[in-house]
Amino acid sequence: xxxxxxxxxxxxxxxxxxxxxxxxxxxxxxxxxxxxxxxxxxxxxxxxxxxxxxxxxxxxxxxxxxxxxxxxxxxxxxxxxxxxxxxxxxxxxxxxxxxxxxxxxxxxxxxxxxxxxxxxxxxxxxxxxxxxxxxxxxxxxxxxxxxxxxxxxxxxxxxxxxxxxxxxxxxxxxx
Length: 175
Prior knowledge:
Elements: H1 4-11, H2 18-35, H3 40-56, H4 67-86, H5 106-125, H6 128-138, H7 144-151, H8 155-174
Helix pairs in contact: 1-2, 2-3, 2-4, 3-4, 6-8, 7-8
């Protein structure tokens, strides 16, 4: 579904019509929560929670801004609530999902694994906002403007978050 408008009409409509909203935003929210540092199962739960909140609050959507911005502001609040609930303990959870590799030589694999582990540990040390902006840009290939819209942030804030994240990440990896 390319148009926000077609979905926004349905958001205030019948319950059956909300299925299209769910189908449009569930994969996007799943990516958002994964980029925010949540494991896949948690990201799935949080995506459903965010969409449930969208459904419950659909009468509050006035159509003044884009539907995507409104949905992502709800998702951002769900993520914040979850981080608060966990006391940020989730940031220290080990990454359990692995990317399939093609078995390079053992020496290369050991060095790559150490680099990856150092990078993951350094990413965990970044504040959630910086990490989210950086990962949306690097992993998902989103432009600064798209990140700003998705997270309901100003464009200069996104630029500063990514710049600071890169600077801090570089510093953490040099030590």
